[in-house]
Design a protein that fits this description.
The chain is built from 14 helices and five strands. The chain is globular and about 65 Å long.
Length: about 260
């Protein structure tokens, strides 16, 4: 009955796709999911997290359907980039903004741990409990928390540098044109290298290599918001079902939910 009430995926006129991997538990393992970035409709699920799992879907598309796809959003560390380049050569790849911020937060936290390990007993009292202060956006800090952050930054120049780099990266997304965003990203990478901080040196190298895929957000505005909501939906359905071992059944359940929401 559920299958009869759930239409086939709408593959015509898709502007943008989101592709991601999801751990479905011990029974199913990793699964590649593809959704419509604008409507949130689930289009494809396949076992595995390699590019071939995504290519299985892309091969189903007609040339006309492929031609309408302008962008594909994905994690920077994902393995789906080659599949897009092979099957959708005219589509822009958009590295997910949320995951990039996570990369930077990890670099800040790695710097914090390094500073803690080499700090004196006196300096440790300033660093203790600073993780929240360093990883929270400045606009979300209370006046009291902002005061503690300012005190930390005055005492520890290294953590101050890491925090400023984190905050300044967000400026990339405030530009209206890709060229301006790319020039700012280049300056940010220069600042990251000048900091001499190992985690940020690695980020600068990776961000420069993928700069086109970072600034392509400016034009296409593709984010992982739909994926985040979809992952929550997966967790709820699996929890209510006390685990699901049949991927085809799970696909129908999830498609039914996402189609109903996109109507």
């Amino acid at each position: 009955m559920l299958e009869e009430d759930t239409p086939e995926p709408k593959l015509d006129g898709i502007r943008a796709l989101l592709v991601d991997e999801k751990q479905m538990g011990k029974k199913l393992g990793f699964v590649t999911v593809v959704i419509n970035a604008d409507s949130g409709e689930l289009l494809h699920m396949d076992k595995g997290k390699k590019g071939e799992s995504f290519s299985t879907f892309l091969r189903k598309l007609t040339q006309e359907q492929k031609a309408s796809i302008q962008a594909v959003g994905m994690d920077r560390a994902g393995s789906y980039k080659k599949a897009v380049e092979e099957h959708l050569p005219d589509a822009a790849i958009v590295f997910d903004r949320f995951h990039l911020v996570m990369n930077i937060n990890y670099a800040v936290d790695e710097t914090r741990r390094s500073e803690w390990n080499k700090a004196t007993k006196e300096d440790k009292k300033f660093i203790k409990g600073s993780r929240f202060l360093l990883l929270t956006n400045a606009s979300n800090l209370t006046e009291e928390k902002q005061g503690k952050l300012n005190e930390l930054m005055q005492v520890n120049e290294t953590l101050s540098t890491a925090y400023v780099l984190k905050e300044q990266f967000q400026t990339v997304y405030t530009y209206q044109f890709e060229g301006w965003a790319r020039r700012y990203l280049t300056r940010w990478c220069d600042m990251a290298r000048e900091s001499g901080l190992p985690p940020f040196l690695r980020l600068a190298k990776g961000f420069e290599k993928g700069s086109d895929h970072i600034v392509s957000y400016i034009k296409h505005k593709v984010t992982s918001g739909r994926i985040g909501g979809f992952n929550n939906l997966i967790s709820r359905i699996i929890h209510r079902s006390c685990g699901i071992s049949n991927l085809s059944y799970l696909f129908i359940r999830l498609r039914h939910e996402t189609v109903m929401r996109s109507v």
